[in-house]
Amino acid sequence: MRRRSRVLAAWLFLAPALAVIALFTVVPFVQGIQLSFQSWDGVSLDTPYVGLDNYRYVLHDTQFWGSMKNAVLYGVVGLVVANAVSMVMALAVHRARRGSAFFRTVYYLPGVFSTVVVGVMFSWFLDPNIGVVNQTLKAVGLDGLQHNWLGDPTTAVIAVAAVFVWYHWGFGFILFLAGRQDVPKELYEASSLDGARGWAQFRYVTWPGMSHVTGIVSVLTLLSGLQIFGTVQVLTNGGPAGHTEVPTLHIYQQAFQYSEYGRAAAMSVIFGLCLIALACLQLWVSRRLGGSTDSRTEKGR
Amino acid sequence: MRRDHTAQTASPAAAPFLSRRGFLGAVGGGLAATTLAACGSGGSSSSGGGSEVVFMNQSRGQAATLKALAKQYTQQTGVKIRIDDVGPTDFLTKLQSSSQSRDMPDMYSVVDGHSMAPYYKAGWAMDLTDQMKGGWGDTFRPATLKTTTFGADNPQHVKPGIYSAHWETPALGIFVNAAMYKAAGLDPDQAPASMSEFIDQLRKIKKSGKGPFWFATSLSNQVIQSYASNYMSDEELNATFVGKNSWKSTGWRKTLQLIADLRDAGVIATGSLPSGTTDNPTVEKAFFNTQGVAAIFDGTSAVGVARATAPDFTDFRSFPLPKADDGTQAPRLVGGAAKGAAVNPRSKKAAEALKFLKWLTAAKQQQVWAKGVPLIPSARAVSDKDVPEQLAGIAAKISDVQLVQNQILEQVNTALQKGTQALILKERTVDQVLGDLDAAQKSA
């Protein structure tokens, strides 16, 4: 009887949180899946079921599948470049004897802006006529390097990726810094006695000690890269000629430009499944690479 | 238990009006009641409440004039008008959420036909066809009425009719920097007689070191549609837009060749078109603010932008897109209807809202619109002298606006924008782009 009342009390305490999660996460998720089998223009009260028509459309939509290529590119850039930059910055700030508080703030700063602000800001920087980048190149006598950064397909893809890295490095930086501070000093002292220095210490002490954080940051950055939207929309809107188009932008166009919410929902379901599969793969790889050390650490504690 | 006991032993005189638990319960109850009440209000089919007519306004540039006119209307009639300034970015989102909660305003701004079609289909706009049959309809320019009428063949499947009334007849054309033209030995007051002459002018400007010509990717469909009128009648254009005619026709092939010609002549500033959500503001900034390009393709609303962002720069002219050298038809402007409004027929204030809309679009008020915004009014009766001089070149040809009832589908529009960029980048040929447009039309 006492046990039952304790369980009941526990559920009562959990109930508000569960209700909020159900209302704002579970219900929209289920509705999204349901919508992928319906036809809806965004306004009508009539939402007829169309079976698998939306999925058939998506399977034959070459632009959607073509945009996946860019999503993978931005995901890989996020995973490799953004994480590498974040980790280097975190390790540097950790070692810094002076000004670490200043650099902690400065490095984290980009992440506090909204993506729209970032997009507009960089579209000004990269403007071919009056942009800061071209004007600076001109001022230092490097006129020949002036370029139409967002108008040339090659540099547009690189520019969007660079903006993404700049915007996201603060997130990885702060987690890597926390992870680095969590690695016990004793391990460095012991490795020093064994003659380990520089790279060897990073390879055998720092990297394994931060593997847990690296796994989490990698998954989140990979997903952010794959889901990149605001930056692309404001900077290029998928241009020039679709060279920077990503699935999220295509989904947005289907829903909010073409009023094809059913098709957009079907794309979202397929894209979501792809993200889940990739995230699982990434977690599996992370565990394979650093999981054994991490699990030993956990057991040791 | 212990707390209960303590509470019971406390002196009644010393007890607070509400215990902490009671207070929290009352607050919780209040919040729940408020939430339920808020949810319950969604059952209403119209907003407004009270005695005022609510107008959800999309335009920022016209907001001041609209408010001034609303105030004047209130003074004249006693009917209070509340302008709900949503702004262009949030307008469609707010309108959609209003329709979902069945809390639509009494009247609201209308944007392009494709975006508004779901609202018309769902019965959120009064069919004004019968109203327009009387004197009211005769006050508008034919192009305004034609381009806002949903015909029987409209691809959005809206019930045929007129669902909005407009006070602006926009048109798109070329704007040129007069000083740059003069510096290159050209006469800005003399519109080029043909496209080849215009391209020659742009070549001369390029030699002076300035960017010759630019337009936003998002306006490429208007450039194309304008130029297409050199080769096709309005009926033929409309037939393509509703999917009856193919995009692979000779007329469209010749039309798209314009982009290749501009590219090959090297007169497109920076060698590419700006894209992104701020592509047209980027073009306008380069023309009005930094004066880095000599000529742009833009809408007549650009003059309002210039007044707001570069009030000192007034030395520019406008003219329609020059005619094709091998054109078979007299070229006609793209335009017809821009800012206007629809009335919510489910509103209790529908009759008052309709009266206000009629008043807003009357010739006397359109003079106020023309001077205040500024814009080219939709009323026939408004004199051309109210049109700003920078728009004179386009306004002179406003009677030659295309009478095409349907618009290019959004899916085709996206393909056209990509295709235009791909043509400039030499990634696709004219025939390949036309094939893409046909495919987009069929899959839409």
Q: Per DSSP, what share of the residues of chain B sits in E-state strands of 2 or more residues?
A: 5-15%
Task: Classify the beta-strand content of chain A into a percent band.
Answer: under 5%
Task: Count the beta strands of chain A.
Answer: 0
Largest sheet of chain B: 5 strands, mixed
Oligomerization? heterodimer
CATH class of the largest domain in chain B: Alpha Beta
The value of Rg of chain B in angstroms is 27 Å
CATH topology-level fold name of chain A: MetI-like fold
- The structure class of chain A reads mainly alpha
**SS-based structural class of chain B?**
alpha/beta
Roughly how many Å is the radius of gyration of chain A?
24 Å
* Count of runs of 4 or more consecutive helical residues of chain A: 13
Helix content of chain B: 40-55%
**How many structural domains does the protein architecture of chain A include?**
1
The global form of chain B is globular
Number of DSSP strand runs of chain B: 11
The global form of chain A is flat
- The CATH architecture of chain A can be given as Orthogonal Bundle
**Within the largest sheet of chain B, what's the order of strands?**
2-1-3-11-6
Largest protein interface, residues of each chain: A-B, 34 and 46 residues
Examine the secondary-structure arrangement and name the CATH architecture of the largest domain in chain B: 3-Layer(aba) Sandwich
Could you characterize what this model shows?
Chain A is an all-alpha fold and 301 residues long. Chain A has a single domain, classed as MetI-like (MetI-like fold, Orthogonal Bundle), CATH 1.10.3720. In chain A, helix 1 crosses helix 13 and helix 7 runs antiparallel to helix 10. The longest helix of chain A is centred in the last third of the chain and has 40 residues. The two termini of chain A are 37 Å apart. With 444 residues, chain B is α/β, with parallel strands linked by helices. Chain B folds into two domains: 177 residues, D-Maltodextrin-Binding Protein, domain 2, CATH 3.40.190.10; 197 residues, D-Maltodextrin-Binding Protein, domain 2 (3-Layer(aba) Sandwich). In chain B, the strands form three sheets. Chain B has a five-stranded mixed beta sheet, covered by helices on one side. In chain B, strands 8-9-7-10 form a four-stranded mixed beta sheet, sandwiched between helices. In chain B, strands 4-5 form a two-stranded antiparallel ribbon. In chain B, strand 1, helix 3 and strand 2 form a beta-alpha-beta unit. Chain B is globular and about 65 Å long. The N terminus of chain B is likely disordered. Chains A and B meet through helix 5, helix 11 and helix 12 of A and helix 4, helix 5, helix 14 and helix 19 of B.
